[in-house]
């Protein structure tokens, strides 16, 4: 219930389309919580199904490399084989052989020098269902917690499968958005998944070389399928063509979202609404300022992500312990949002400011857990370690924002720091001395960036006198 004088801020989805990329922002309580980006070049392969060929089996790693038609072979672990018990206890050499044909699906896009992560446990998603060819299990999303609703949905799906004898046979999972839907919606999704699976099977029988069989929807359509939740009040799209294409898609597959579509023709760019562009700028910076005056330092590395909480200019009004407690409480909420915006995954270590009061430490831990509860990506938090650190993991679902939008610095080799101009100048000086001792040169020309070489105060030059050069040479 809202307090008098307060207006509810609507939740919405913003879809920004340009010829080069599509961006989707999920707005909750007036601020961006999730941002998805898909570029025309380097489009994600996650969810795509391919005919693959095993090119190398590695018993020592219980894995295989599979050619699936990409420029780099994909990696398939034994635990991701169809029918695997997930323990990886099988001997992969007994299951796969070089040259063998099999259907694979991309689970993770290539990252850095690593090829795509593949799985042979195929799945195809629709609005309300996920279909898997293996087994005959019917499951329900764990986020649907009401036991009566879970039983009702399972009964609906069983009834739909018995009613439609042509439906694809396998396992099904009812997704979170299926909460409250009826038989007609379930039947429509069953027919869609059946058509897709039969097409994949047909194409796979007709080819023996690695190639794409099924490609997931583009980002704008996936956003309608996957991100529209009961709280969403409108979906703004700034492309007339995309808006026109989404209308029939919604009518057929997501009818409850059809009335939410809205063509945006405002004077300001769509992502300027709710400050999404500014949020993206902050999400690419290691420093995140807190409203109180404190700040976070977020350092993303290949091994893990570390988050350091600092009081900054916040001095509080009472004693030090209260100042530290309030800073940590604010940081817990802000960093949970930053994890979603930046799409950080893997191991995450949070260094909150040390607190002496055990009740304060417990409250900060509970605040962090509560802030992460709305995260659609699975997270796990441990208690405070002996060193006062909070350790957590967040499932890697897609590339982080930094990996997607940035690249390593060619000068600092990814270290994030550059040598000072003085250091560069001295290195150049030593190289000149080294060269002068082995070469008979009257002078040398130095090409360097203006900022890097400025010891003499004359931009872009170095002034020095070397006794090994008669008369002195100024460069």
Brief synopsis:
The protein is of the alpha+beta class. The protein has helices spanning 92-95, 147-163, 183-206, 219-227, 240-253, 276-283, 320-342, 358-372, 401-405, 421-436; strands at residues 11-17, 21-28, 31-39, 49-58, 63-67, 74-77, 101-108, 117-119, 124-125, 129-132, 138-140, 171-174, 211-214, 232-237, 261-263, 287-289, 295-300, 305-310, 346-351, 379-384, 390-394.
- How would you sum up the major sheet? 6 strands, mixed
Arrangement of strands in the largest sheet: 16-17-18-19-21-20
Number of helices: 10
* Residues in helices, as a percent range: 25-40%
Shape: globular
Structural class assignment = alpha+beta
- Overall mean pLDDT score? 86
Percent of residues in beta strands: 15-25%
- Rg value: 28 Å
- Unreliable spans: 1-7, 452-475
Distance between the termini: 73 Å
Count of extended strands: 21
Describe the overall structure.
The structure is a single chain. 28% of the residues lie in helices and 24% in strands. The protein has 475 residues and is α+β, with helices and mostly antiparallel strands. It has a six-stranded mixed beta sheet with strand order 16-17-18-19-21-20, with helices on one face. A five-stranded mixed beta sheet has the order 3-2-1-14-15, with helices on both faces. A five-stranded mixed beta barrel has the order 4-5-6-8-7. The chain is globular and about 85 Å long. Residues 1-7 and 452-475 have low confidence and may be disordered.
